[in-house]
Design a protein that fits this description.
alpha+beta
């Protein structure tokens, strides 16, 4: 599959409403061969998803990580809409998602709330499943933590907001959400400006 040109990508974004993302998906396990094969299957599954358009992809060989092996792929994708983006995050549990285009996502408050509530419901279900498989949930817990950060970033891409409003939109209480927000500030991913959190430029 040939890579799309920048012109083709921007046409999809500007004329058809696609969201252009860069994402990393990690596979952790053993033996090494199984990890490599699983990563190939993940990439193939993404390519076959009719809500995604492949732009480019680069996979890396498994490397030792404690007693396991870790491999990851970097992909640039076009997703059909915000619903498809949330579906992708839940189905593939990426380690990170960066929205490259458009610069701003246009949501109505009710639409965003419904989207986030559906996402959190699926996330909760995934978390409940993970608790039943303690031997296999090391990476899953890590990715759930990353997904909470990603949902904060997606929400703030809509508009800057104070912690109270961010808490209401994300659906997580302030005490639980604050450490994630603090870490994003520490990493200079978001900024607190006039009592409102916003994405760092």
């Amino acid at each position: 599959m040939s890579e799309m040109s920048e012109k083709e990508v921007m046409h999809k974004v500007e004329e058809e409403g696609y969201i252009y993302i860069k994402t990393i998906i990690e596979v952790l396990g053993k033996p090494k061969e199984h990890v490599a094969e699983t990563l190939k299957l993940v990439v193939q599954k993404a390519k076959e998803n009719d809500k995604l358009i492949f732009v480019k992809e680069k996979s890396f060989e498994p490397k030792p990580q404690e007693k396991l092996f870790s491999a990851f792929t970097e992909m640039e994708l076009l997703v059909k809409n915000a619903d498809a983006l949330m579906d992708f995050c839940v189905e593939f549990m990426p380690s990170s998602v960066e929205i490259l285009e458009p610069p701003m996502l246009d949501f109505k408050n009710t639409a965003l709330s419904n989207l986030l509530n559906e996402f959190l419901g699926r996330l909760h279900k995934a978390d409940m499943i993970s608790k039943g498989y303690n031997a296999a949930n090391q990476l899953l817990r890590k990715n759930i933590k990353t997904l909470v950060k990603n949902i904060i970033l997606v929400t703030l891409k809509y508009k800057p907001m104070p912690l109270k409003e961010l808490t209401r939109m994300v659906g997580i209480d302030e005490k639980t959400l604050k450490p994630f927000v603090d870490e994003l500030i520490k990493n200079k991913t978001i900024i607190l400006d006039d009592n409102k959190y916003r994405l760092a430029k």
